[in-house]
Write a structure and sequence with these properties.
The chain is 40% helix and 16% strand. The chain has helices at residues 7-27, 43-59, 74-86, 105-111, 123-130, 139-150, 170-178, 198-203, 251-255, 268-288; strands spanning 3-4, 33-38, 62-67, 92-95, 159-163, 187-191, 207-210, 228-231, 235-239, 242-246, 260-261. Strand 2 (33-38), helix 2 and strand 3 form a beta-alpha-beta unit. The chain is globular. The structure holds guanine (GUN).
Amino acid sequence: MTHIIDGNAVASDVRDGLSTAIETLDAEGVTPTLATVLMSDDPASETYVSMKQRDCEEVGIEALDIELDPEAPADELFETVEDLNADPNVNGILVQMPVPDHIADRDVIRAIDPAKDVDGFHPENVGRLVAGDPVFKPCTPHGVLELLDAADVETEGADIAIVGRSNIVGKPLANLLVQKADYGNATVTVCHSRTENLAEKTRRADVVVAAVGVPELIDGSMISDGTVVIDVGVNRVERDGESTLVGDVDFESAKEKASAITPVPGGVGPMTRAMLLYNTVTAASRQEDVPVDLS
Ligand code: GUN
């Protein structure tokens, strides 16, 4: 029987695990606070941000909702970030990407105080992660590690193929999986659009992580029996005249071969959101010097 890994259930466990830490902070008069900044009228971005806000409120994290006109000059965004950096009541800052074309994502990431960078995207946090001393693990890779742990998948010595080399998922996940650390010690192959013989790489892997943004690229013919399949993709496609969400994995054919697989929706997505809460609590604990148990 293929194990369908329930990301909603694991995310709920992560949120439950945060409640003691939030109580500890509360007893010291600290309410973890996340500021979200949305400078877009893309409906998907609006939905993601409102879900993140709702998640915060459900666990006792204060959510500050800042919306900027997508046509506003770049300075308005940078001044907003500077104000949030300087605000002692704000522990975490998330600027929803992408920002409008007249502003570079990279400049925005660099403007955020690394101590409040709960996405883990700032070069200082990327450097710490690569050096094996992360403060904030980026939310999606962190969520993937938690899913592997919850599904009792041993990464030590495993051959893991990551399909996708983005700064948000592929690269940080590869770095985490090769660390000499819990959920690490794997042998990682990072595949991308120029990879030759992709199926050869995925077929010899014990774990395949698809994070490439191509609907249903990985099908059952590309994996071996017993493979663990983690699908990070979220793609909106038209099917039978209706808009529907699919991953980067063809779930039906991959499920026939996989020993365990994440669905879309209900797999990695809820974990990304849960790990954002985790990072916000981590940020509050560090800034306020209140130790909390986040094991
Ligand atoms: N846009 C899509 N995913 C993300 C994310 O994880 N963080 C931010 N800040 N923007 C995103």
